[in-house]
Amino acid sequence: MPCFQLIRRHDGLTYHFAAHPARARCYVRSDLEITWEDDLGWVMRDPHDGALTGRVWHIAVSDQDAIPPATCWVTAKAGKSYVYDLRYGAHGSPP
Predict the structure, then answer these.
(1) What is the residue range of 19's domain?
(2) 24, 38, 39, 40 - which has most CB atoms within 10 Å?
(3) For the residues of 40-71, what is the DSSP string, one character each?
(4) Are residues 26 and 18 in contact, defined by beta-carbon separation less than 8 angstroms?
(5) pLDDT tens-digit profile of 31-45?
């Protein structure tokens, strides 16, 4: 199962995500989940309140694959917004 990192563009802060042990098409870190939703594609949600906190920026749902795309992601939470790059690599499996 692939693991990946989200790397914040402006400062290189890196978050690591791993496949959820019991849920298909779900990747987690301590405070966020990246999951597949049929109407939105791959999205990031707060697992506590379900709030949408991030998503793929420029790939249509119909063009997204079975794993989160290695591309630009945009997040927004508590009045702040960031741009990240999702990368598979040394700490994860290639797609």
Answers:
(1) 4-87
(2) 40
(3) TEEEEE-TTT--EEEEESS--GGG--SS--SS
(4) no
(5) 899 999 999 999 999
Q: Do the bridges between strand 52-56 and strand 72-77 make them parallel or antiparallel, or are there none, so unpaired? A: antiparallel
Report yes or no on 34 lying in a domain: yes
Q: What are phi and psi of 49, to 5 degrees?
A: -120, 0
Q: What is the pLDDT of residue 55?
A: 97
- Has residue 95 been placed in a domain? no
Domains: count for the chain:
1
Tell me: the pLDDT tens digits for 13-30? 999 999 999 999 999 988
4-14 as b/e: b if 16+ CB within 10 A = bbbbeeeeeee
Q: What is the pLDDT of residues 31-81, one digit of tens each?
A: 899 999 999 999 999 989 999 999 998 999 999 999 999 999 999 988 999
pTM check: above 0.90: no
